[in-house]
Fold this sequence. Notes:
There is one protein chain. This protein is of the alpha/beta class. The protein is built from eleven helices and eleven strands. It has one domain (about 1-320): Metal-dependent hydrolases (TIM Barrel), CATH 3.20.20. It has helices at about 10-15, 25-30, 65-80, 115-120, 155-170, 180-190, 215-220, 230-235, 250-260, 285-295, 300-320; strands at about 1-5, 30-40, 55, 85, 100-105, 125-130, 145, 170-175, 195, 225-230, 265-270. Strands 1, 2, 4, 5, 6 and 8 form a six-stranded parallel sheet that branches. A three-stranded parallel sheet has the order 9-10-11. The structure holds zinc ion (ZN). Zinc ion binds near residues 176 and 274. Zinc ion (ZN) binds near residues 176, 198 and 274.
Amino acid sequence: MIIDGHNDLVARLWxxxxxxxxxxxDAPDADFAGGFFALYVPSPKPPNPTTDHYALPLPGPIxxxxxxxxxxxxxxxxxxxxxxxxxxxxxxxxxxxxxxxxLEGAEPLATDLSDLEAWYERGLRSIGLVWSRPNAFAExxxxxxxxxxxxxxxxxxxxxxxxxxxxxxxxLVDLSHLNEAGFWDVARLSSHPLVATHSNAHSLCASTRxxxxxxxxxVGASGGVVGVNFAVSxxxxxxxxxxxxxxxxxxxxxxxxxxxxxxxxxxxxSDFDGALVPESLGGIxxxxxxxxxxxxxxxxxxxxxxxxxxxxxxxxxxxxx
Length: 321
Ligand code: ZN
């Protein structure tokens, strides 16, 4: 059974684009049991960098009214998917797809959080405070390579309150896309395991979107998990947008994180339908090939089970209560 930390199927369907990776009809053969399905209010798509070194500007903020209008449309798309809403680890079962309702960027929320409980009632169980832009709660990293993730200020007062309320309600707080100052603010504030749903090891690929060794250590010490992102530009040592990237490059990040903070703290966070992933993987139909590559890379039966689903199930159980 495979549980995944991030996909952008909803945004792709909302835009009317062709589904590239999360073709749900492929799920049974691939043993794909679902995972985090993002509601992402889009910024203008950044240009793909044409060199291996790049420093794209930070996209501007999105007005709350506009974000709230668009996210309702995204939520309608989410509700139309032939999936089971996941609000408990037991909702994930072999042979069906369960979806965690995840908000990637808290722009649609009122800064006084007066609508947070209504979102919880809708099934929201995971919030990334930011996508890669500033909002009323925190600031995300711009897309830069090579660069440290220490690119801006930490959480606002509203952001700190959002973390506290998420802790109380049992909503997972996602650290992916957050800058380093914000990461450490959440690490100090949150009583939950720290989770980065779709980020990699900065030591292996020096993108702003990846986690430094100190950040990885904090995730491990908290009992959390890092979902390894399959996006080639966050995987490759040269940060390049190269479709012909071998699956062993993804396995390299899984291995690095497992060696550094333990096999209990690494999982998958594909970024399917939101990024360029290795062409040999394609979408969820190719996941068994990635599992084979893990085995070939020295992961035993138990290690593979932890990376593919057990670690996600444990952290969801600890967070949702
Ligand atoms: Zn993302």
